[in-house]
Structure prediction request, 121 residues.
Amino acid sequence: MGFIIAVLVNAAALWVAVQLLDGLDFSGEWYQWAILALVFGVVNAVVKPILKILTLPITVITLGLFLLVLNALMLYLTSWLAGLLGLTFTIGGFLDALLGAIVIALVGTVLNWALGAMGAD
Prediction:
């Protein structure tokens, strides 16, 4: 059940980022959002931890700010993989990816907090 909720949170966060930022674009059906969120979740679960370890010195030197760049790169990788799957998720440029990663992180954090607060009753 937790995996399904994580995919739905990713889908909602991606949707908000696409709605707020002109540089992010997705055109597809509702079920394709779930596929995109699944791809994004797999990228963040498999690739991101490896890159976090490899880029630890840079992250320490930049006091953690490099993690924003890493999140943008994960969004770019998601866009590339989505294209391979026939999904139309495009990013206009690096700044759009960076802003998108920030929006997705904020929305995901708020949704996870809200869902956690609802389950605490």
In short: Strands lie at 24-27, 88-91.
